[in-house]
Automatic annotation (TrEMBL):
Coiled coil: none annotated. It comes from the Bacteria. The lineage of its organism: Bacteria, Pseudomonadati, Thermodesulfobacteriota, Desulfovibrionia, Desulfovibrionales. Residues 67-458 form the YcaO domain. It comes from Pseudodesulfovibrio alkaliphilus. This is YcaO domain-containing protein. InterPro entries: TOMM_cyclo_SagD, YcaO-like_dom.
Length: 458
C-alpha cells in the first residue's frame, strides 16, 4: 500500500517510537534499518514488524512494512507509516450500514451507484468458481461514509472498497477482492489525500498498461536533472540494472514503471511512481524497485518461503516446488506470489511485450505540473480528475491512538478507475481497460487478449 512518499513528516522519531514499538503492547513489535551489502544501491532501507492482528481481528493483517529513503530517518518514517496504514485499514471502527443501493440511496442520494463501479466481466461472473457477485441496485452489502474532496458532499460507498481484507457478514454479497491502492498516512489531511490520490491514479495506469501489454516509451535519465544526478550517485555501479518506462495514460499525472534486473540472482522486480513532478515520480519508482527486490530475494530459499508461510499462517509458497514457470495463474490470489514468479528466468519473457518498444523520452520532456506545495498540487490533481468526470472520495480511517501521535490515515477512492488486483481476479468489467489504449494510439484489445500472468510487483 505504501511507498517511499507515503510517510508522516515532521514528527520526531524519538517522541513516537516508545509509544509505537513494543514487543508486548505496541502497534509495532520492531522497527529496524538494514545494512547495505556491497554492490547494493546506496539507499537506506527500514523494516517494521507489526503486531499479530489475529489477537483482535478475524483476519490476519500485514506482518511487516518496508521503507526506502535517501536518509535513515526517511526510511524509518516510511516503514512506520506503512505499518500505521495497515493497522488502521484492517481494523474497522467506523459504523457500517447494511442494505442495497436502492435502499441506501433513499438516505443518501449521493451514494456511489453500481454504474460508477465497474468491477468484473460477465464471463468472470459466469465462472462457477468465481466467488464474487455483480453489484446491482438490489445487491445487499455494507456501506461506509466518505466525503467528496471535490464537492464536499458526503457519499456512502461499499465498505468492501475501503477496508483491507474485508470479510462479508451473514446475508452480505461478496463484491470484490481487497482494493490495495489509495490508503495513505501523513501528519496532515492534505498530504495524506494527495498520496492516496497519486496511488489510485498509479494503479489505474498500471493495470491498463499491464493487462493491455502496452509498449510505452522508455525514459532516459540524464545528468541535467537532479534525479539523473542522484541515480548516478546512488544506483549506478551497484551491479544491478535499472530501467524506467513512462506509462501515463489519459490522466495527465506522470506515472512510471521501473524494473531492476539482478543478473547475479537471475531475478527481476518492478516498482511504480506517480507525482505531478516527473522527477519525484521517477525516484519513487526506483525506490520501489529496491524495496520489492529486497522483499523478493528471501523467497529464493526454502527458509524464506517457510518463514513467510509461518508468519501469515498460509501455505502461499510450496517449499517443495522447483518451478513456477508452468503454473496456472488463475489460482494466484496473493500479491506476494507476483514477485515469487519472477525469481526464475524462465518467466522473464512475460515482460517481453511491455519492453519491446523502440520509443524513448527524456525526463525533461514530461510536463511538470507541480509547484511544490501539497495544497496546490492537490487542487491541481482534483481539477484534472474532475475534468475527466471522476470524483475523489475520502474516508478517514485514523484510530484515536494513532491520531494522538500526530498521524492521519485516509482511504482515497476514485470510482471508475481500475484498481490493481491479484492475478486471478483482474477487474475486467472496467471499460477503461478497452477504451483508454486506443485514445493513446494503441490497438483496442478484447477481454480474451488481456494479460493473464502476474506483474513483477506486489
Amino acid at each position: 500500500m505504501t511507498s517511499s512518499t507515503h510517510h508522516p513528516r515532521n514528527i520526531p522519531l524519538s517522541r513516537i517510537l516508545p509509544q509505537l514499538v513494543s514487543r508486548k503492547t505496541g502497534i509495532l513489535k520492531g522497527l529496524n534499518t538494514l545494512l547495505n551489502s556491497p554492490g547494493e544501491p546506496k539507499t537506506h532501507v527500514a523494516i517494521s514488524e507489526l503486531t499479530d492482528s489475529r489477537r483482535y481481528l478475524d483476519c490476519y493483517g500485514e506482518t511487516s512494512g518496508t521503507g526506502v529513503g535517501l536518509t535513515e530517518d526517511r526510511a524509518l518514517m516510511s516503514a512506520l507509516g506503512e505499518a500505521v496504514e495497515g493497522y488502521c485499514a484492517y481494523d474497522i471502527r467506523n459504523p457500517l450500514i447494511m442494505g442495497s443501493y436502492r435502499k441506501i440511496s433513499t438516505i443518501d442520494p449521493h451514494a456511489v451507484s453500481p454504474a460508477e463501479l465497474p468491477l468484473y466481466s460477465p464471463s468472470q461472473y459466469g465462472n462457477e468458481k468465481f466467488k464474487y457477485r455483480p453489484f446491482t441496485e438490489d445487491t445487499v452489502i455494507r456501506w461506509t461514509k466518505g466525503k467528496s474532496a471535490i464537492t464536499g458532499t458526503q457519499r456512502h460507498l461499499p465498505a468492501a472498497l475501503v477496508y483491507v481484507s474485508y470479510s462479508v457478514c451473514e446475508k452480505e454479497t461478496p463484491l470484490c477482492h481487497t482494493i490495495f491502492g489509495g490508503i495513505a498516512s501523513s501528519t496532515s489531511h492534505t498530504s495524506a489525500l494527495l498520496s492516496g490520490l497519486y496511488e489510485a491514479v498509479e494503479r489505474d495506469a498500471m493495470m491498463i498498461w499491464w493487462l493491455g501489454q502496452l509498449s510505452c516509451a522508455k525514459v532516459e535519465l540524464t545528468s541535467d536533472t537532479w534525479v539523473g544526478k542522484l541515480f548516478e550517485q546512488k544506483f549506478a555501479g551497484s551491479g544491478l540494472t535499472f530501467e524506467l518506462w513512462h506509462i501515463t495514460m489519459d490522466i495527465p499525472i506522470p506515472v512510471f514503471f521501473g524494473l531492476v534486473t539482478d543478473a547475479r540472482n537471475n531475478t527481476v522486480a518492478g516498482g511504480f511512481g506517480t507525482n505531478l513532478n516527473p522527477e519525484v515520480a521517477a525516484l519513487k519508482a526506483l525506490f520501489e524497485c529496491v524495496q520489492n527486490r529486497l522483499g523478493q530475494l528471501p523467497m529464493k530459499s526454502d527458509w524464506g518461503r517457510s518463514l513467510y508461510n509461518e508468519k501469515t499462517q498460509k501455505n502461499i509458497f510450496d517449499e517443495n516446488s522447483d518451478t513456477i514457470a508452468q503454473q496456472n495463474f488463475s489460482g494466484m490470489v496473493d500479491l506476494n506470489n507476483n514477485l515469487h514468479t519472477y525469481l526464475q528466468p524462465e518467466t522473464h519473457h512475460y515482460l517481453d511485450a511491455v519492453r519491446s518498444g523502440n520509443n524513448t523520452i527524456d525526463l525533461n520532456e514530461i510536463r511538470n505540473r507541480s509547484n511544490g506545495s501539497a495544497e496546490q498540487d492537490t487542487e491541481t490533481c482534483l481539477e484534472l480528475l474532475h475534468k475527466q468526470g471522476f470524483d475523489v472520495i475520502v474516508t478517514d480511517l485514523t484510530h484515536e491512538d494513532v491520531a494522538d501521535l500526530g498521524f492521519m490515515v485516509l482511504r482515497v477512492s476514485i470510482p471508475g478507475l481500475v484498481p490493481n488486483s491479484v492475478t486471478a481476479w483482474p477487474h475486467l468489467g472496467n471499460q477503461r481497460l478497452y477504451d483508454v489504449p486506443p485514445k493513446l494510439g494503441f490497438k483496442r484489445k478484447a477481454e480474451a487478449e488481456m494479460a493473464d500472468y502476474p506483474l513483477p510487483y506486489a
